[in-house]
Amino acid sequence: DSGVTQTPKHLITATGQRVTLRCSPRSGDLSVYWYQQSLDQGLQFLIQYYNGEERAKGNILERFSAQQFPDLHSELNLSSLELGDSALYFCASSVDRESYGYTFGSGTRLTVV
Amino acid sequence: AQSVTQPDIHITVSEGASLELRCNYSYGATPYLFWYVQSPGQGLQLLLKYFSGDTLVQGIKGFEAEFKRSQSSFNLRKPSVHWSDAAEYFCAVGEVPGNTGKLIFGQGTTLQVKP
Q: Per-residue confidence at B28, pLDDT binned at 50, 70, 90?
């Protein structure tokens, strides 16, 4: 157990729908990162939050959004889902905003049908 | 832009044999370098990291990696592979400037271990 909790572990939904993925960081960690892992794109950085504020943005689609709440958990919202959004979505956390080598959760596998 | 290349998509080694997984990066200055391992159905676990100093880095599970600036490489090694090492291995570089904490990953190398 890495200490980073992601729910749900699996999600199957239809095209056009909206889903929310949840991440609870390790105790004491202020920074949360979201990554997408797909067969064709590999591991891609989506977005980072630090203590409730957006810190860095990667190749995140406009249909996707995220936020970090006062209790530091984070949610990744995916809307107008397409088949190509099927992927493994990872959350990671670290103590501060510039830490590398952080801890990953076990991921949420999203399947869009 | 920074990038990471793992030339070998798939590698098979016999149990007990030595292992070397290749990683090349593109970045002018000294990068922050990492190796992660992902077992089936699991998240990514950090094996080791290099920021500066001694170019030979020791990690968990008996792994080590050597930073070679002249070759822009950060190859992962293990002297004797165990069946439990079968997994996917990712090399990554920390994005700079900005020190955002963002990691840029290679495409990964799948390691198969023969009994």
A: low
